[in-house]
Design a protein that fits this description.
Layout lengths: L1 E6 L3 H14 L3 E7 L2 H11 L3 E4 L8 H7 L6 E6 L6 H6 L4 E3 L4 H16 L7 H15 L3 E4 L4 E4 L4 E7 L2 E6 L4 E4 L3 H7 L5 E5 L2 E4 L3 E5 L5 E4 L4 E3 L5 H7 L4
Parallel strand pairs: 1-2, 1-3, 3-4, 4-5
Antiparallel strand pairs: 6-7, 8-9, 8-12, 9-10, 11-12, 13-14, 14-15
Helix pairs in contact: 2-3
Length: 250
């Protein structure tokens, strides 16, 4: 029996997926569900599941950040999301499946069959750290240039030329190294999904920054970072730990 955990910030999505698993697969037992990603981190570390169904779009900590914050990573991973831009091919190439919501029962069965097959063959099992490493590489190669949707056109930019991004409700301003500013007609979660996860980090609900462009970090309070253009950006209390971890600061 495969012990599984479901993580999704929407309770209805959890209940829907759990119903499908219970009705279409007798090989998976849901041992716990979480709507809060911080609770999910503790739950995974304690329960040590064989399989995790993970949503990407979640408040405070998204799915990719959650994976990086785990101590226990020896499980198989199936991504469940309503969005289709999260390096689908990178996951599939590494035998980790990707299910779009609403989850199709046939796709769910195929995904679970892949997990069963890999767990039967220990020599082919990859831990989550290997998957993350290849995902980072694949995501970056796939997005050497990313599309920014403006009001009347789409601009292609190289991620490394971006300094930071600032949320403005349903819009996002992207600040470039050459001082160009793009007002993008997408919210900041959409932009975050396009950026390489090894280079960019969410430091606040309103800000994403390029890690390579951080010049200084002020530790007072929840913290602030100073970019190479001397722009000062606050770190929210909820993002402080992951920012400090990313910068190897204790």
């Amino acid at each position: 029996m495969i012990k599984a955990i479901i993580i999704d910030d929407e309770q209805l999505a959890i209940e829907s997926l759990q119903w499908e698993i219970e009705n279409f697969s007798q090989d998976v037992k849901i041992i716990e569900t979480f709507t809060n990603p911080k609770d999910a981190i503790s739950g995974i570390n304690y329960l040590k599941p064989d399989l995790v169904f993970l949503d990407i779009e979640m408040p405070e900590i998204d799915g990719f950040q959650l994976l990086q914050l785990l101590d226990y990573k020896q499980f198989d991973l199936i991504i469940t999301t309503a969005y289709n831009q999260y390096a689908i091919q990178a996951f599939k190439a590494n035998a980790i499946d990707y299910l779009l919501k609403p989850v199709d029962p046939d796709d769910l069965i195929k995904a679970i069959d892949k997990v069963k097959s890999r767990q039967l063959n220990q020599s082919s099992t990859k831990n989550i750290e290997t998957v993350l490493s290849k995902l980072v590489q694949g995501n970056f190669e796939r997005h050497k240039k990313i599309p920014l949707s403006l009001n009347n056109k789409i601009v292609l930019v190289t991620p490394e030329e971006i300094l930071y991004c600032k949320s403005d409700g349903s819009y996002t301003t992207v600040f470039m190294k050459d001082k160009t500013e793009y007002l993008v007609s997408k919210n900041i979660k959409h932009i975050e999904a396009l950026l390489p996860i090894d280079t960019f980090i969410r430091i606040h609900k309103s800000y994403i920054v390029n890690l390579n462009e951080i010049k200084e970090l002020i530790k007072q309070g929840s913290g602030e970072i100073i970019l190479t253009n001397d722009r000062i950006i606050p770190i929210s209390r909820s993002h402080r730990k992951q920012v400090f971890d990313a910068l190897n600061i204790s």
